[in-house]
Design a protein that fits this description.
alpha/beta; about 15% strand
């Protein structure tokens, strides 16, 4: 039953882990806006990890949210996929080296793949909605076929 329902409807959970919110705006735009409207393809945004199939992570992963991100990841049922979106999620972005000549920031634990396994990486600052949708589409077979 679960496998059949996953083929017909994918739930994406968006988690913001620190940064400027630019990626979050583009991700929500990709799912909810009438221009892109991913919901017409049965891709829905959820805020319940137990309903989620794909975890969409944005931000540099601050030390404050590191443990929360791990807990959310663990609560998502298997099979699951993780899509990291934006430069901050992939490298720590400008926040990783915010100390400049003083060195890396003590507040940043990321990038995301230092904390949880990442299946798909979507670069950009902020990534275009089309690229975020492409990342989600690449993650769907990982969830359906595992």
């Amino acid at each position: 039953m679960k496998a059949l329902s996953r083929k017909k409807c994918i739930h994406v959970m968006l988690v913001y882990t620190g940064g400027c919110n630019g990626c979050d705006i583009e991700a929500v735009n990709a799912v909810f806006s009438p221009y892109y409207d991913a919901e017409q393809y049965n891709v829905f945004l959820t805020f319940n990890p137990r309903e989620a199939d794909i975890l969409l992570v944005s931000g540099c992963v601050t030390k404050v949210v590191k443990d929360s991100l791990k807990k959310i990841y663990e609560k998502i049922p298997n099979p699951k996929a993780v899509v990291a979106i934006g430069s901050c999620a992939l490298t720590g972005g400008v926040y990783k080296n915010i100390g400049g000549d003083l060195g890396t920031s003590d507040f940043v634990a990321g990038p995301v793949d230092n904390i949880i396994p990442v299946d798909i990486k979507v670069p950009g600052c902020a990534p275009r909605p089309e690229d975020i949708i492409e990342g989600i589409v690449k993650a769907i077979p990982l969830v359906v076929e595992r």
